Amino acid sequence: MAQQLVREGIARGPIDERKVIADITDRVSARLGGGALDLLINDCCYQEIKRLKAAGTPSDDPYYTLLKDARRRLAFARRDELDAILRDIVRHYVVEIHGHFDPKIYARATQLLPSIFALLLKGQDPAKLFKGGVRAGLKQGIRAGLGAALSEGPDLADRIVVSGEVETFRTLVTKGTCVLVPTHLSNLDSPVVGFALHAAGLPPMIYGAGINLFTNGILSYFMDHLGAYRVDRLKKAVLYKEVLKEYSTYAIASRWHSLFFPGGTRSRSGRVEAKLKKGLMGTALAAYQGRLAEGAPQERVFFIPCTLNYHLVLEAETLIDDALQESGKSRYIILDDEFSKGSRLADYVRNMLALDNPIEVVFGAPLDPFGNPVNADGDSVDPRGRTFDPRGYVMEDGVVLKDDQRDREYTGRLARSIAAGLRRDTILFDTHVLCAAMLRRLEARHPDLDLYRRLLLPLDERRIRFEEVDAELEHLLAALRGLAGRGEVRLGSVVAEGSAEEVRLSGGRHLARYHARKAIQRDGAGLCLGDPRLALYYANRLHGHELPDPLPRGAGLLGTPS
Amino acid sequence: MSVKAAIVGAGAWGTTLAWMFGRDGGEVRIWTSNVDKAKAVNTKHRSPAVPTLQLPDGVRAVTSLDEALESRLVVLACQPSWIRILLRKHSGSFRPDHRVIHAVKGFEARGRTIAQVVEEETCVLRTGALAGPVVPRDLWGGGDTAAVVGSAYQSVIDEVTEKLVGEHLRVYGTRDRLGVEIAGAMRTPVALAAGMLGAAGRRPALAAVMLTRAIAEGARLAAALGGDGATMSGLSGIGDWMVTCHDPDDPLMQAGRRLALGVPLEYGEAEARVRTLLTLAQERGVDMPITESVGAVLDGSSVREALADVMTRESRPETE
Questions:
Q1: Which of A323, A327, A457, B211 could form a disulfide with A269, with the two C-beta atoms 3.0–4.6 Å apart?
Q2: Does the distance separating the beta carbons of A413 and B123 come in below 8 Å?
Q3: What ipTM, to 2 d.p.?
Q4: What is the third-level CATH fold of B184-311?
Q5: How do the residues of chain B divide into helix, strand and coil, expressed in percent and rounded to 5?
Q6: Could you report the per-residue pLDDT of B31-59, keeping only the tens digit for each?
Q7: Is A370's Cβ below 8 Å from some Cβ in B?
Q8: pLDDT tens across B122-140, in order?
């Protein structure tokens, strides 16, 4: 059954694009039509016209024209005219969000997914191959192009390890609609997840991707044909957000397996997501209730927390700089990071291929839309391990009871359960642990300084002898292995089994591979924090775990090398 | 007709709650494992726990918890130390459509609130806590008072309010369930301290200081545990503590008086509640001088010594 779903792709049946657009437009209009429509539309027009003006949008741009026309009609519009204006704007948004999803291209692309992904990570543009394919006869051309492109270098499939609750996940995609909620560190995450799903024999999923990513030729091709829908984070109007939520609700209610990055954007600090965005998450509960109300009592929705674990992160330098600057919020959408630079992407991929296990994808324990664990049969499980039917959370006497405040509480609980799962299933590698140990030595030496002042210490203060590094590593490894033994975190193989010296050597080797700035570098008889900010980015992966204080300064340790 | 509420616990407080929920009509089930007590309720409409109270016709005692749990609204009114055992034994009988509130003042020994215990042992998510300056014998005699329902779910607050509110009882709501539970737990050390001060002949000014500073103490604990300190200034906090401290017949006040005179505490549950608070305070690094003083007296210090320790503490801003 799962294999059949992989072949079929996202939808269990053919997708009628016109119907999707019409249905969602109807739903949003019906839902919002009862309120103060003029205020809602006016807010949307005001915010968007202001934004478009500032961006220098041409006056004949169709969207710009639509909004100006709407605002002009708004002042004297009767109720039926307000409804018509609303429908025009909503329809525009739905068309934009839905994109050009084509099930035929999608099915073909799904078969070629591993090869496309390999090309992507090798810095080649699959679109060029497809153009060549048109000239040479599509199938033959593509295959020839892919064969040539993939014949060089190591096989990416061996470099991405998928683990966790894979079997359960395979069962659940046949029993209901799955919503995958991964950690988010890099723009490479979407293709990595896509590849991991394919490699695990799981169906692909639709996901919201920032509209800015569609400007990247390679990624745009990949996303446009593999289920990505477009999210424009620059659009702040309530109306746009409502359309987006309705789209997601519709997708889940239509049983399209979906993917959200629950942190909303890439983790700037390197920390595992703890505070999650609940807007899109709540659409699963709305979809679940909608289906129950339509008389589908066996409807089930499952959340699958997922962690993407890298030794090194492509955009780490830009992200941590952003996190440490006040401008972090204004740069919510970073357009000029390492991902946008072809040579950096190629460097990253080349170095990643040379690592032993560069990317590990962990599918975590599934949850129901209320945050309860789910067993392999798809049944919700109570804290004592008993299965139960969760419909009672929203139904009484066979009727779904609408209660937005209750649903927000349920979604908050779900978010906490997902966050706990993400922390538990994050793998700590030698790069993370070595950086954490080095920063903990600075903390031990300068307990009176706050984190930000420690990051500004001069180079001489950032040199640490091997003995001191190893002692701190031993201290830290003991605590981390204790946590791992209790199932509170996962450890990479070197961290789980290696000596302090092995972790130091392995972590140092990995950190030296790719970044232009060196988080940690060898310095005579010790190590030096070359770029403490970058080290902080990797050390932050340990954040949120209960760890002991650093070893005190001088507790059997040598000080700064002379 | 659906069951209006199920009360778990048929002591004096549980019986009073059954009477409160049932006095405006509707079926209320009260669960007890004691067959004789159930028989008395069902035949004479009186409980041996409160023989003077005539129960409404709709109040029915059951000895099967499953039968009680046919009600969607469940009110726990038994000792904190029993609740986890009870819920664990019957966790399979709870359903997602249940709303479980409790009227228990105190934490479980391991520092979990009663609502947290419900969430840890059953599939129930919609929980709440009922508290406030409610003195059962005043209510039986037609006295007027008010209570507060704390729940993250507005629908739970609305349901309990609708079923409980009456001519003599006003019901308020708050989303800060945890704050209500912390305020309820603080009642024990506050009442014991008030009893001790009374027995030691201290003037009312000191009782006022103690009550006022208990608000700050409870607020610090609430902040540390994720609740809202402002709830200590409400009915479940200062409202409940004031009525306790002005009630010479309150068992905790009396226990405090006896403690001050060197008579060991007979009420083991009260000592456990104080010690649980102290453990929580230590774990979370919360400064709780009133509770610590009560703990010191429980450990053998005199009231004079304990009071001297509090009075000679370093001065601090009032708002901390």
A1: A323
A2: no
A3: 0.92
A4: N-(1-d-carboxylethyl)-l-norvaline Dehydrogenase; domain 2 (1.10.1040)
A5: 55, 15, 35
A6: 999 999 999 999 999 999 999 999 999 99
A7: yes
A8: 999 999 999 999 988 888 8
